[in-house]
Amino acid sequence: MTPRLSSERRHGLFVSVDGPGGAGKTTIVRHLAQMLVADGEHVHVTAEPSTSGIGQLASDLTPTVTGHALACLYAADRYHHVETEIKPHLKSGQIVISDRYLASGLVVQRFDGVDPVFLWQLNEEVERPDLTVILEADPHVIAERLLERGPHNRFQLAPDSSHAEVSYYRDATNALADAGFEVLRVDCSSRPPEQSAAAIRDRLTVLLAPSEVCA
Ligand SMILES: Nc1ncnc2c1ncn2[C@@H]1O[C@H](COP(=O)(O)OP(=O)(O)OP(=O)(O)O)[C@@H](O)[C@H]1O
Ligand SMILES: Cc1cn([C@H]2C[C@H](O)[C@@H](COP(=O)(O)O)O2)c(=O)[nH]c1=O
Question: What are the backbone angles phi and psi of residue 175, rounded to the nearest 5°?
Answer without folding.
Answer: -65, -40
